[in-house]
Amino acid sequence: MAIDGLTMRFGERTVSQDIDLTIGAGEVLSIVGPSGCGKTTLLRAVAGLIPPAEGEVRIDGQTTAGTPDGVAMVFQHFGLFPWKTVEANVAYALRVRGVAKKEAQERARELITLVGLSGFEKSYPHQLSGGMQQRTGLARALAVRPRLLLMDEPFGALDAQTREVLQFELLRIWQDHPVTMLFVTHSIDEAVLFGDRIAVLNGRPSGVAELIDVTLPHPRDRSVLAAPEFLAIRERVWSLIMNADARP
Ligand SMILES: Nc1ncnc2c1ncn2[C@@H]1O[C@H](COP(=O)(O)OP(=O)(O)OP(=O)(O)O)[C@@H](O)[C@H]1O
Ligand SMILES: [Mg+2]
């Protein structure tokens, strides 16, 4: 995927300007930046949900317009249908892509097991904890076997403990089923843990202040949190976010 000279505007207001980013197959690009700098807007542009003011997003060489094939998004606030069960929420993503009912149901059950929600197939979102709702959102996104997974602060609405559990579960799932991922997060630890590279956005309008390579080897687990390189990258990202003048 390539983001090329992307500028996003709402009315008169330019949110981000001239963003260039590429992401290779199987790569995880973490995106961090202050609240309101345009991270969600960037993901929505990549998903083809809002048109860019300038520039373009290409996936496998094709410009995205409308929701491109093979792109799935996990939202900041779960984004489940409250009137559908866990299973129906997951199966829905497949049904709208034309998968037959029985097959969609079977695949939904597999994914529900993968994210650790067996036994809750028939539950409704309001009967689930936040962590379980986000597992459902993750199952729904993975069900379509996306070429590109867009994660918008997937653990942001969770308590710290649930967040940590889900982080390492997602890491395990990702390591078993690697998928190209754009991973937006407020957590610098999370950005380093998941990312092959980290794009730090800053400034008004925002731009890419720096692209940082995360050379920590895969598979990663909790022990990387104490690695000297992990700590060094975390400090670097932190200082770039804190320094509003870091923008080029
Ligand atoms: N639909 C919209 N109409 C008008 N302005 C919008 C719209 N969506 C976002 N904005 C504005 O664009 C800016 C960037 O919003 P965005 O949601 O992308 O930020 P963010 O980086 O995801 O923030 P956060 O970290 O808090 O989730 C904000 O100032 C917001 O007010
Ligand atoms: Mg956001």
State the gist of this model:
This protein has helices spanning 39-46, 86-95, 101-114, 130-143, 160-176, 188-194, 228-242, and strands at 2-10, 13-22, 28-32, 54-59, 62-63, 71-74, 148-152, 180-184, 197-202, 207-213. The chain has 248 residues and is of the alpha/beta class.
Task: Jot down its keywords.
248 residues; 10 strands; six-stranded mixed beta sheet; Rossmann fold; 34% helix; 2 domains; binds magnesium ion
Give the strand content: 15-25%
Distance between the first and last residues' Cα: 23 Å
CATH superfamily of the largest domain: P-loop containing nucleotide triphosphate hydrolases
CATH topology of the largest domain: Rossmann fold
Which strand order spans the largest sheet, edge to edge or round the barrel?
6-7-8-3-9-10
Bound molecules: adenosine-5'-triphosphate, magnesium ion
SSE arrangement, N to C: EEEHEEEHHHEHEHEEH
How many helices? The count is: 7
Low-confidence stretches: none
Tell the overall outline: globular
Assembly state (oligomeric): single chain
Helix content: 25-40%
Derived structural class: alpha/beta
Cα radius of gyration in angstroms: 18 Å
**Number of β-strand runs:** 10
Please state the average pLDDT score. 91
CATH class of the largest domain: Alpha Beta
* CATH level-two architecture of the largest domain: 3-Layer(aba) Sandwich
Largest sheet: 6 strands, mixed
Your description of this structure?
Helix 2 packs across helix 3. A hairpin with a 4-residue loop joins strand 9 and strand 10. The model has no long low-confidence stretch (mean pLDDT 91). The chain contains seven helices and ten strands. It has two domains: 167 residues, P-loop containing nucleotide triphosphate hydrolases (Rossmann fold, 3-Layer(aba) Sandwich); 66 residues, no CATH class. Strands 6-7-8-3-9-10 form a six-stranded mixed beta sheet, with helices on both faces. A four-stranded antiparallel beta sheet has the order 2-1-4-5, covered by helices on one side. The protein has 248 residues and is an alpha/beta fold. The chain is 34% helix and 24% strand. The site of adenosine-5'-triphosphate has 9 residues, from helix 1.
